[in-house]
Amino acid sequence: MKKYICTGFLIFLINCDAGYGVFISNKSTLDIQLITEPPIESRIVIKKGGEYDSIVIKRINQSEAIGIYRIHPLREIYLFSKIGYGPGNYLPFREVKIIKDKDTIHITENNIAGKTVKFPKDRYLIEVR
């Protein structure tokens, strides 16, 4: 009986964990470029298709461990997700750079919380304007 109670309690705890997703959102009128190390694809399974293929500028060999993406105006790309209550200082990439025109935004574990805006349903956006 104790096994069933413990198992039920563990399932309850797992189901109560909140999760969140972090997205890069291009709110500007220009294309932006996103560079990640490692590539986003190496961390998650992305649904392939025309929309996804249109944002990948250059797919570099996985052994080179860099992903380069184009994000058109008013579009967004999924960066990562995690179980918890917001990005805090968690960043599963060695490097994330957002390039708009001649400006570059570096996202690090130290500044990700300050760069994100919370939206409903546990969505966090890094908005580029």
Structure, explained:
With 129 residues, the protein is α+β, with helices and mostly antiparallel strands. It has one domain (18-128). Helices cover 18% and strands 40% of the residues. Strands 3-4-2-6-7 form a five-stranded antiparallel sheet, with no helix packed on it. A four-stranded mixed sheet has the order 5-1-9-8. A hairpin with a 3-residue loop joins strand 8 (116-119) and strand 9 (123-128). The longest helix has 15 residues, at 2-16. The protein is globular and about 65 Å long.
Outline the secondary-structure elements.
Blueprint: H1 2-16, E1 19-26, E2 32-37, H2 50-53, E3 56-59, E4 67-71, E5 76-83, E6 95-100, E7 103-107, H3 112-115, E8 116-119, E9 123-128
Parallel strand pairs: 1-9
Antiparallel strand pairs: 1-5, 2-4, 2-6, 3-4, 6-7, 8-9
Give the count of helical stretches: 3
Counting helices, strands and paired strands, the structural category is alpha+beta
Low-confidence segments, given as residue ranges, are: none
Number of strands: 9
Based on Cα principal axes, name the global outline: globular
Measured between the Cα atoms of the first and last residue, the distance is 57 Å
What is the subunit arrangement here? Answer: single chain
Q: What fraction of residues sit in β-strands?
A: 35-45%
Q: Portion of residues in helices?
A: 10-25%
- As a whole number of angstroms, the C-alpha radius of gyration is 17 Å
Number of domains: 1
Strand arrangement in the largest pleated sheet: 3-4-2-6-7
* Sheet with the most strands, sense and barrel status: 5 strands, antiparallel
Average residue pLDDT: 79
Secondary-structure element order, N to C? HEEHEEEEEHEE
